[in-house]
Design a protein that fits this description.
This protein is mostly helical. It has two domains: about 140 residues, no CATH class; about 150 residues, no CATH class. Helices cover about 90% and strands about 0% of the residues. It is built from twelve helices and no strands. α2 crosses α12 and α9 packs antiparallel against α10.
Length: about 375
């Protein structure tokens, strides 16, 4: 009886602490973004740090090498991609007047003819003149945007603080990762340690494999889409390829978004609807490679979630916690999948145990009745 009361008290305390932690996380959400990003980076980088340690390096030296590698990769991406994206955005600004003409004098009349819609109230002439007169004044636009942003001093300070804190928090988490794991393990009661360690090991396998595999799939798709659209001759090939690749963590979203944006861009640029077939071919090849090559070999079925459940998890995370919710939606979903699997296994084990006890009781009763029968017969 006392044992049951102790278990109930521990359950109430655990549930209360969990609810309190979730409420605190919700209230602190505006400042949690750099911590969540740093945790993800440290988690992904920790296996490489441990491999370097096995070669004889100290923990501090291994962390420093991996941290420098992360910094170099980030700087390389910024130095390579920012000028390319900026160049393509300037090219888009230059061609917006021509795109407006194509839309007003070719595409809209075609839609009116085919669909019976009326776009007479939509006049893009003023927009065309405005863009044509001011497309070179990009610096002025940027200055006005910065002046608007400067009025929100706290937001700018928060953004700068996040940029500064992210590498700092990442470094300390990478350096002390094993210490944090050991301390958390020390807080677990001995009676629950085996079961919780098993759950943590399974979660680590599923989560680590999924995160690393999904990042590689996103990168591969961004390259495939960018190269394919460049071969087609699309001016915005790299920018659209990056967008389609980055949003591909949601099943089929990168494929849909890429086809829509690239289809609009290629129609505006070439004014030739047959070019849509080339866009469909690019994203069709990308989707086939993702379905039959990239995802099976890089990710596999480690997450175990239906695509609808993935979309729901991401939308729920975004609704509850904003950008941080988008970041943690799939990792949390992966952990929940492992938790539900373990709970199901515990239920099946408990049910099997109950059935075995009933069976053993029946067998004992049969043996007892046989003994009594034998004893009465001998008497």
């Amino acid at each position: 009886m006392k044992t049951d009361n102790v278990i109930n008290q521990r359950s109430v305390i655990a549930v209360s602490l969990t609810l309190g932690f979730l409420m605190l996380a919700y209230l602190l959400m505006p400042i949690l973004t750099p911590f969540v990003l740093a945790f993800i980076l440290a988690y992904i980088s920790n296996p490489l740090v441990e491999r370097l340690q096995k070669t004889g390096l100290t923990r501090s030296l291994a962390v420093s090498l991996v941290f420098c590698l992360l910094i170099l990769v980030a700087l390389g991406l910024v130095l390579i991609m920012v000028p390319v994206v900026q160049k393509q955005l300037l090219k888009l600004a230059q061609k917006l007047p021509a795109y407006a003409d194509t839309l007003q004098y070719s595409l809209l009349p075609w839609l009116e003819l085919k669909l019976g819609l009326d776009f007479s109230a939509l006049d893009l002439t003023a927009l065309r003149k405005t863009v044509l007169a001011n497309w070179q004044d990009v610096g002025g636009w940027m200055g006005r945007i910065l002046s608007k942003l400067s009025q929100s001093g706290l937001q700018i300070f928060g953004l700068l603080a996040s940029l500064v804190l992210l590498p700092l928090i990442t470094f300390y988490l990478m350096r002390d990762w094993h210490v944090l794991v050991a301390r958390i393990d020390g807080l677990i009661a001995p009676g629950y340690r085996v079961r919780i360690n098993k759950f943590a090991t399974e979660s680590d396998y599923v989560l680590g494999a999924f995160l690393k595999g999904q990042l590689l799939v996103m990168l591969a798709l961004a390259i495939i889409y960018s190269v394919g659209l460049s071969i087609v001759g699309l001016d915005m090939a790299i920018l659209l390829g990056l967008v389609a690749g980055l949003v591909s963590f949601v099943p089929y979203l990168g494929f849909i978004v890429g086809i829509v944006l690239a289809g609009i861009a290629v129609t505006m640029q070439f004014n030739d609807y047959t070019m849509l077939l080339a866009v469909l071919a690019v994203f069709g090849v990308g989707q086939l490679l993702e379905s039959f090559v990239l995802t099976p070999y890089l990710v596999g079925d480690r997450l175990g979630l239906h695509p609808v459940a993935v979309i729901f998890a991401i939308m729920a995370g975004a609704e509850l916690f904003g950008f941080v919710g988008i970041l943690i939606a799939l990792p949390v979903a992966a952990i929940l999948v492992v938790a539900l699997h373990n709970l199901g296994q515990m239920y099946r084990d408990a049910d099997t145990g109950i059935k075995n006890k009933k069976r053993s009781k029946k067998q004992k009763k049969k043996k007892t009745s046989k003994r009594k029968t034998t004893a009465s017969a001998s008497a």
